[in-house]
Amino acid sequence: MNDRPVAPALASRLAQLVALAHSGDGAFEAAANEAERLASGAGAPQSESWISAQEALTAAIAAAGPTRVALGDIDGIGANALQTNGGIAPNDLAAIKSAGAEVGAMDQRHAVRIAAIQKRLAL
């Protein structure tokens, strides 16, 4: 069985992608907090306060972009390795799965908050 350590280039790239996701997570948190605040006080649809809340929601969705990009890139690393090499070394696979799980959890949390704000705004 191939028990070599994670390939250094892969470990470095995964670390970069996880860091990218965390930077997106921080930006998303701030933007989502603002969107939630505005949505909680929003008036009727199409009112000025509702439009402000919707604009803040759009900003939150955009702020989640780096996390979505990182997740897609992590998935792509695994798919590319499978296609190119016909398989993935166990420790490389574990590293890819771990990074994917960490970033995927952030992405899922973002999706839940976005959906809640959309519901509050009746979107």
Assigned CATH class: Mainly Alpha
Pairing-aware structural class of the strands and helices?
mainly alpha
Order of helices and strands: HHHH
What is the CATH fold-level name?
Topoisomerase I, Chain A, domain 4
Averaged pLDDT, please? Answer: 93
**Silhouette:** elongated
Oligomeric status of the shown chains? single chain
Compute the separation of the termini in Å.
Answer: 52 Å
**Separate helix tally:** 4
Unreliable stretches covering 5 or more consecutive residues: none
Tell me what you see in this structure:
The chain is mainly α. It has one domain (8-120): Topoisomerase I, Chain A, domain 4, CATH 1.10.132. The chain is built from four helices and no strands. It has helices at residues 8-40, 48-63, 65-85, 90-120. The radius of gyration is 18 Å and the shape is elongated. 30% of the residues are buried.
Features:
mainly alpha, Topoisomerase I, Chain A, domain 4, about 120 residues
SSE arrangement:
Blueprint: H1 8-40, H2 48-63, H3 65-85, H4 90-120
Can I get a quick summary?
With 123 residues, the chain is mainly α.
